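Task: sequence design from structure.
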């Protein structure tokens, strides 16, 4: 992707990191985002090769790197996501950060539509989220690819197989499983064995460092 854009996004992550262990938060969120970027690129490659569908690569990769920027204010000082703000809110916190930092609406959308398979009007009402009541679901191919790619890697951090994602996602709302299956039919299931291997040591190591920092 455009190196200048990538650097600008990295600086944004650096600016918004916070908590007692800002470097750990940054490493976790940034590395997860970069993994999602690689998964999204892989899905886009397959899509172009098999169906000839063109994907805006800079927008796709920027979207992947930005989608979780709203996580920083949602973590408390001990890297829990539940104490300050509920996890769904990081989508809207992120959208506001991206907008306020001068990125266009098409970039902010990645933050707002990437949670689960997107949030519907009903989700917004049920969760009492203080945002305009409407659907926040992926619409463009780039939004769909980032949202879908994100489901294959968690910030525990771990690579999840499709069956596990499907089970996790439908716990809250069975309609999400339908939307996930639609994404699978469009984009397939990526082979992530090499990425799993590449990040195996890092995943173990950051868990050890986080637990040590938290005195666990
Ligand atoms: Fe994510």
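Answer:
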């Amino acid at each position: 992707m455009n190196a200048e854009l990538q650097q600008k996004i990295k600086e944004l992550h650096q600016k918004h990191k916070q908590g007692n262990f800002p470097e750990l938060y940054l490493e976790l969120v940034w590395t997860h985002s970069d993994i999602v970027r690689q998964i999204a690129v892989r899905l886009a490659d397959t899509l172009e090769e098999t169906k000839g569908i063109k994907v805006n690569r800079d927008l796709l990769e920027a979207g992947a790197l930005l989608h979780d920027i709203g996580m920083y204010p949602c973590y408390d000082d001990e890297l829990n996501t539940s104490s300050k703000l509920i996890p769904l809110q990081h989508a809207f916190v992120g959208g506001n950060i991206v907008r306020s930092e001068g990125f266009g609406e098409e970039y902010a959308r990645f933050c707002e539509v990437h949670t689960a398979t997107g949030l519907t009007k009903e989700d917004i009402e049920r969760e009492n989220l203080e945002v305009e009541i409407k659907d926040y679901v992926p619409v463009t191919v780039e939004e769909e690819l980032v949202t879908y790619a994100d489901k294959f890697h968690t910030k525990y951090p771990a690579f999840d197989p499709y069956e596990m994602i499907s089970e996790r996602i439908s716990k809250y709302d069975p309609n999400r499983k339908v939307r996930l299956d639609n994404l699978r039919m469009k984009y397939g299931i990526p082979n992530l064995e090499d990425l799993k291997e590449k990040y195996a040591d890092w995943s173990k190591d950051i868990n050890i460092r986080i637990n040590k920092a938290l005195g666990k």
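The chain has twelve helices and two strands.
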